[in-house]
Amino acid sequence: MSTPTKINLDESEIPTRWYNVVADLPEPPPPPLHPGTHQPATGDDFAALFPKALIEQEMSAERYIDIPGDVLDVYRLWRPSPLFRAHRLEKLLDTPARIYYKYEGVSPAGSHKPNTAVPQVWYNAQEGIRKLTTETGAGQWGSSLAFACAQFGLECEIWQVAASYRAKPYRRTMMEIWGGQVHPSPSDVTDYGKQLLAQDPDHPGSLGIAISEAVAEAVEDPTIRYALGSVLNHVLLHQTIIGEEALLQLAKVDETPDILVGCTGGGSNFGGLAFPFLREKLAGNMNPTIRCVEPAACPTLTQGEYRYDFGDTAGLTPLMKMHTLGASFIPEPIHAGGLRYHGMAPLVSHIYELDLVEAISIPQTECFKGALQFARSEGIVPAPEPTHAIAAAIREALACKQSGEERVILTALCGHGHLDLASYATFLAGEMQDLELSETTLREAMQNVPIIES
Amino acid sequence: MSTPTKINLDESEIPTRWYNVVADLPEPPPPPLHPGTHQPATGDDFAALFPKALIEQEMSAERYIDIPGDVLDVYRLWRPSPLFRAHRLEKLLDTPARIYYKYEGVSPAGSHKPNTAVPQVWYNAQEGIRKLTTETGAGQWGSSLAFACAQFGLECEIWQVAASYRAKPYRRTMMEIWGGQVHPSPSDVTDYGKQLLAQDPDHPGSLGIAISEAVAEAVEDPTIRYALGSVLNHVLLHQTIIGEEALLQLAKVDETPDILVGCTGGGSNFGGLAFPFLREKLAGNMNPTIRCVEPAACPTLTQGEYRYDFGDTAGLTPLMKMHTLGASFIPEPIHAGGLRYHGMAPLVSHIYELDLVEAISIPQTECFKGALQFARSEGIVPAPEPTHAIAAAIREALACKQSGEERVILTALCGHGHLDLASYATFLAGEMQDLELSETTLREAMQNVPIIES
């Protein structure tokens, strides 16, 4: 084997700045709009939610932004993360393709989420904020924010989608280990939550509802701010450290990708891996196909509409132009909880509209079949979300077997599945079903999307 | 910070041989005895259980044994494992001590166990064995063996202690993901299991009973062998890659340990870290204090007797001279399931008798208190077993704070706690108790230990 299995970087090689793809796009993304006036939102419109430094990053067109030293200190607990050559999966598939995967499961929370949780908490701490609120679904984001808050001494209050809160008590324990306070959402803590519980005491909740509750709590107190784990520009910015490291690692083994596949929920894992490669592609240094992979039951890019919509269900956030299934859309309960979001990051939506990236959707049983092949060859048990990326990589590798092409495939394994083993138990028992997109639910949700005069 | 947070080795620096401490001891360890004749056991006495190559390693006095290339290929999926400088824990404790921890949770199974599972399976595969049987408690060893069997195409059949089988379904799922077949023990598959179930259909099982069942299945078929995850010489041998790597990593930052602490259940994690450092100590190259840390509820070294006893409950294994609480001793249900074994590795017992190492015991609430401090500073959530090592390291670090000494503390964080979060939930709820060693149970168990004429 000429390429090593694990391609490491030294701590001294860790990238010291994030990459802002906005600087290199042929046209700027449409601005967010004020939810009341429908005019382009200003920094002030975000001031009750986020600290100034993050609002500046959200609106920035600077190509590079320096990573603060305190953030790098925490990153070093797990970064640089390893890039693996999937020698044993390639052998299992009998493919001439060379498969590389960037593994973010080495972080304390077990996913890529701490890459943005840590700087978000640090910037809030710099501006004297005492507490952060957020929402979480399966719990990856909530545990990442709790971990980051523990590093800088902030309190952390989390609304977890009630269905997950009840079904996955262990992820809640993880948040509590790091000092987080967790409520099921809808909760009896906010007016919106109380209203929904009055309608249905067993309400299963949704990400959109949990965002509404966390936002409502934050805007009431100037020492509290809100933190979002995906979708927004500054979140995707922080995640670009994934792609920057992968570029350095591939250069060490003298490879450039022919195709890059990443799973997309809110878009931050995908953007984090893809944007630095898109920069190289736009600069003519390489020419990879870049492909988003979304779940068949929540296909925002491939079946959603590109228009202004809210990020949350109650309509408290600014309006963002994005591919959406409608802010009131509640996806079928697929196992990849982190991909069950009605919208797609405005930046990912924009570059998809510009034809700079492709998108496909894959049903979940194909994803878990691929995950078993992966676990039995590469060892790591993937989280349900990146099984979509793995399934897409396996499709490509098998196409190479047919064609005889030695293509270089790059993907991101954005987290391990140690807290998602119930999903595997369902799959192994032959009880997992491929949930369809509900056309009726979609139609109803899209009717609620506001009409914006252009 | 002068020392990096993570001290990595390149793949090219991975040690290519295991270290056999027997070669350097002032006197050889007492031999195992045939269970019937009480005469020193020969290789033939182990032939129905283990392949020839492993029996040779079990009895070897060679100082170094080469690691086969196929084994190194699988090791590369996670090895070399990182050595961390615990900068953030040191700061939290306000100690002048420098704390290093070798982290084995990066393996696919999440612990040090694959270090021996992989070579054990490979040697069996070389001798044409079709299937391996084993026991497992919390499931760390069973999942490691299932993972290793998947790498070399062997079947894997696992008897899991019934109480854990029922309480921890997710670890069972992990074994099944890697293709393992899992029975609760006692099971209706073996005569011994049937006999115990007839007495008590809800029998909670024990490690000793599960070993008896796995051994019984193996000895009946020449294409099946048995694999043990700790205690035996060849298992400790394979684990020495931990200490060999740690030596190289500490040398990179120009450090030698003043004290080394490791948790001890069967002894393989401890031996794996400690033996290479013991070699250096015996050679006069460094002079660390080396300390075993065991749970207060299962204190084999500090309260057990050093005498010949069986490794299993039914008395099927050869007799081994070791510190034992009696093969029929069933420890209180502490959360560190991997430390609930009645005996201690004969090699660790022997070097303890030679006064080459020390031993202490720590109650579990102190361990979990230390684990929370660790998780909130270093990020990683430790498995219950290494919380004992962490608590001991924290004791040392706080003593340094008192004395002002800048001591170098080295420990092994042998696994993460992602599948043990229920233990943390119990602790966070204030419901964890410090279970005592039951003197009555101990006295009864010791009465069953065979009397050997010397």
Topology at a glance:
The structure is a homodimer of 454-residue chains.
Chain A: E1 6-7, E2 17-19, H1 43-46, H2 52-59, E3 64-66, H3 69-75, E4 83-85, H4 87-93, E5 98-103, H5 114-126, E6 131-136, H6 140-152, E7 155-161, H7 162-167, H8 169-177, E8 181-185, H9 191-199, H10 207-219, E9 224-226, H11 233-252, E10 259-263, H12 268-282, E11 289-295, H13 300-303, E12 305-310, E13 319-324, H14 346-353, E14 358-362, H15 364-378, H16 384-403, E15 408-413, H17 421-428, H18 439-447
Parallel strand pairs in A: 5-15, 6-7, 6-9, 7-8, 10-11, 10-15, 11-14
Antiparallel strand pairs in A: 1-4, 2-3, 4-5, 12-13
Describe the model:
Chain A is of the alpha/beta class and 454 residues long. Chain A has a domain at 6-14 and 66-110 and 234-446: 3-Layer(aba) Sandwich (Rossmann fold), CATH 3.40.50. Helices cover 41% and strands 16% of the residues of chain A. Chain A is built from 18 helices and 15 strands. The first copy, chain A, has helices spanning 43-46, 52-59, 69-75, 87-93, 114-126, 140-152, 162-167, 169-177, 191-199, 207-219, 233-252, 268-282, 300-303, 346-353, 364-378, 384-403, 421-428, 439-447, and strands spanning 6-7, 17-19, 64-66, 83-85, 98-103, 131-136, 155-161, 181-185, 224-226, 259-263, 289-295, 305-310, 319-324, 358-362, 408-413. In chain A, the strands form 4 sheets. In chain A, strands 1-4-5-15-10-11-14 form a 7-stranded mixed beta sheet, with helices on both faces. The first copy, chain A, has a 4-stranded parallel beta sheet with strand order 8-7-6-9, with helices on both faces. The first copy, chain A, has a two-stranded antiparallel sheet with strand order 2-3. In chain A, helix 6 (140-152) links the parallel strand 6 and strand 7. In chain A, helix 11 (233-252) crosses helix 12 (268-282). Chain A is globular and about 60 Å long. Chain A starts with 5 loop residues before the first strand and ends in a 7-residue tail after the last helix.
